[in-house]
């Protein structure tokens, strides 16, 4: 309950006596509204929110997630990337150029053993042959080992040295003769500075062989044939060789006998070093025999070589002939053979002044070659007369030649 003062308006009639100057007493009722505060108790409901803590037990179902540890083995495949240490090679520079060259006594290059970049300049060179260090002489069946300590190449990286070998063979893959040779080992840096070591070595051949040499009338060697010889006693002789050697057009070989034992001969097919049949003429036949003991025996004889020519080109013709300038196309040069032949053919075309204007090569078995009417300088040939010279060499080395005339004319 709350006591609240309330203002209430109440009408009250109050008689008032007024004195009037007239001697008339008049009683007049007057109504005056007068506000009089009056305390009035009024019951008013007022709701007041009041927080009150009350302990009340209420049954509530609550789900609680409680982890339970259970040891259950489960096979699981797990990819694990584990960094592995790896060796990264450090780049090695090779700023020097190494050259190993073999020279003969005349100062001519016999062979270049090495020419490649290396890691360092040479400071020393070690030589070995047949187990001997720093040899002065090597034989034909031994090999010279050239070792360079503290010098490495890209292929010998990490070894601490590089080794090269020379087996007494020249640049033409032939054995060098007995004599003194010089081994020049040189390194060159990027500024042009060189370091050079030179050593002389003697090559002593203990080979046994027989060699046939054929010389023409001018003293030029046209053919050399070497044959390994293992058994021989006695001297070399060419007494059994006749004064003439004849080579037939069907081919064949000449037997050059130089001793009395079986196998004391060398065969010559009548060809030079280029595989061509030598022309008829005067030649000198020389045979040299060398034994393992160092004995050299020699015999020579002058003979006449007669070569029977072999003609295998039957006919040569040009189509069209004459050729009309501006008509287009080419001139085809055809030939017929006596029999099937293999080999090479070359056609040379000359003008009337004898100047070579075109050279064309082909196969003998092809039977024809075309000329596109152009010169060697790719210009078209002018109108006129031309000479075509056809030269052929078959597989046996025999040559044959034919000549025909060509004409280039104007429109009629």
CATH architecture annotation of the largest domain: Sandwich
The largest β sheet comes out as: 5 strands, mixed
What would the average pLDDT be, to the nearest integer?
Answer: 79
Here the CATH topology of the largest domain equals Immunoglobulin-like
Order of secondary-structure elements: EEEEEEEEEEEEEEEEEEEEEEEEEE
- The rounded Rg comes to 62 Å
What form results from the Cα inertia axes? flat
User: Given this structure, which CATH class of the largest domain is correct?
Assistant: Mainly Beta
Q: Total strand count, please?
A: 26
Q: Could you give the order of strands across the largest sheet?
A: 4-3-10-11-7
- What distance separates the N and C termini? 152 Å
- Percentage beta strand: 35-45%
Overall helicity:
under 10%
Number of domains: 3
Structural class determined from secondary elements: mainly beta
Q: How many helices? A: 0
Q: Can you tell me the residue ranges where pLDDT is under 50 for at least 5 consecutive residues? A: none
Quick structural summary:
This protein is mainly beta and 412 residues long. Helices cover 0% and strands 42% of the residues.
């Amino acid at each position: 309950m709350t006591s609240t003062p309330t203002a209430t308006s109440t009408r009250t009639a109050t008689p008032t006596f007024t004195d009037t100057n007239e001697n008339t007493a008049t009683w007049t009722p007057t109504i005056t509204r007068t506000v009089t505060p009056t305390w009035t108790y009024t019951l008013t409901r007022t709701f007041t929110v009041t927080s009150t803590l009350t302990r009340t037990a209420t049954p509530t179902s609550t789900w609680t997630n409680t982890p339970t540890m259970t040891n259950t083995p489960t096979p699981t495949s797990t990819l694990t990337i584990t960094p592995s240490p790896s060796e990264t090679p450090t780049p090695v520079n090779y700023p020097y150029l190494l050259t190993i060259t073999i020279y003969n006594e005349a100062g001519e290059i016999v062979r270049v053993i090495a020419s490649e970049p290396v890691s360092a300049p040479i400071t020393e060179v070690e030589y070995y042959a047949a187990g001997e260090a720093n040899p002065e002489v090597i034989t034909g069946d031994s090999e010279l080992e050239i070792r360079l300590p503290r010098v490495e190449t890209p292929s010998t990286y990490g070894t601490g040295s590089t080794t090269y070998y020379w087996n007494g063979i020249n640049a033409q893959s032939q054995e060098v003769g007995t004599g003194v040779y010089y081994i020049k080992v040189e390194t060159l840096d990027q500024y042009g500075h060189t370091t050079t070591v030179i050593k002389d070595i003697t090559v002593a051949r203990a080979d046994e062989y027989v060699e046939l040499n054929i010389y023409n009338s001018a003293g030029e060697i046209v053919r050399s044939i070497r044959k390994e010889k293992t058994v021989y006693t006695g001297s070399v002789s060419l007494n059994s060789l006749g004064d003439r050697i004849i080579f037939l057009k069907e081919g064949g070989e000449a037997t050059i006998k130089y001793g009395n034992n079986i196998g004391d001969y060398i065969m010559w097919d009548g060809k030079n070093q280029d595989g061509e049949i030598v022309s008829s003429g005067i030649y000198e036949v020389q045979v040299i025999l060398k034994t393992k003991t160092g004995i050299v025996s020699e015999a020579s004889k002058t003979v006449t070589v007669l070569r029977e020519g072999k003609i295998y080109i039957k006919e040569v013709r040009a189509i069209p002939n004459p050729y009309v300038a501006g008509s287009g196309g080419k001139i085809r040069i055809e030939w017929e053979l006596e029999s099937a032949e293999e080999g090479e053919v070359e056609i040379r075309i000359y003008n009337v002044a004898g100047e070579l204007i075109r050279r064309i090569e082909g196969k003998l078995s092809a039977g024809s070659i075309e000329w596109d009417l152009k010169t060697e300088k790719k210009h078209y040939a002018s109108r006129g007369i031309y000479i075509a010279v056809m030269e052929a060499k078959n597989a046996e080395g025999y040559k044959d030649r034919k000549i025909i005339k060509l004409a280039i004319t104007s429109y009629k």
